[in-house]
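Protein in question quoted for reference:
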Amino acid sequence: MVTLHNRRGKLPFIQKFSKENREMQKSNTIDQLGRYRLLRTLASKEHLDVFEGVHLDLGRRAAIKALYLYEMRDKRERQRDAERFRQESYRLEHIRHPHIVELYDYGEEDGIAYLVMQFAPYGSLASLHQIDEQLSFARIRRYAQQIGSALQALHDAGLIHRDVKPGNIFMGANKQVLLGDFGLVTEDQSRQMPRSFLEYGGTKVYMAPEQARGLPCPASDQYAFATMLFEWLAGCRPFEGTADEILYQRQYYPAPSLRELAPDVPAAVEKVILKGLQIDPFNRYKSVREFVNELECAFNPPGRQATPVRLPYYAGTAQPGKAHVGRRYGSRPGQLAPGRKAMPVNDGHSSEALRLAPKEDVREPQFDEFTVQPLPLSIHEDAFEVDECDLELVPADGEGLARRVWNRLGSWGKS
């Protein structure tokens, strides 16, 4: 059921709107699709909106992707996009995976086709991280394992995503990564004749060279995946310029050195990323699974296996403060543990910080001198939550340390 405020009956298929009128009409007229009440618009583009909604009876929140077929004047365009929407619903329904967005429902009513999907309250990784933001190794490893698991499940089902990018990867309610937007997913037809670029689509700044030539394959998703990892490690993309310039460079030039842009990246990690960015798909890893396994080994090479040291549980009130990035700390075995600082912003010199007070008297474990690194911190309204993370301890000499601390800091907020 589509509930309209200002008009009744079936919406006309052929009707021309200015962009301003179109946006005003959508926001003012549609407040319900099927059994879902629409709360707010999450994203919008031509002929399509994504809403946050809630089920009228169950109270379940969902993301509702609405395609306005009635706006499309061209019959072939309307039929093509409607079929693509149905295919997206079919593929989501038949691929169940903890790191793939779950489909709840699909419907077509009054010239609007819509998908009802799992809601990701923290948005996409594109909204969580700026393009020039370098992420911690711990967070990158966690993202890589979860995204890689989802892509491998897709490939095992004989499908290719074709549009792997931060904007299509979401953060779920339990802080799990979710691969979404299956509108361009297709069957693996890499052994068939090439097709046009327009048919295979995708996002140019992440697109593999062979996909731009109309020959996507599972290794194309690996290339886009490696591009994201390069971006998170270096704080910039492998190639710069307009989308078309980047696409051209990828066809003919190898990816630049990662360590020249980010010297702290281990050489073994650079080697894995650059192999995933090879121009020839046959020179990349045989599967995303192999790519992720090699990346994990590069972060944790044999002989330097991390020794887990469990820190005590910290919770308390949020107190603004300053924490100098790179300040050295050492353990005081047997002494009371001090308050810890979680640093959400890192400008290279100092960080706005929130101090965590120990929940109870605890004793520190023994570990070598290390440098404090920023901890992943989520802020929503008046609540603060420090993500679980595997915090790498960086010693004073910069040579690496075969010891890591697992932080389980839990939830805390203003009181």
About this structure: Residues 304 and 402 are 5 Å apart (CA to CA). The mean pLDDT is 70.
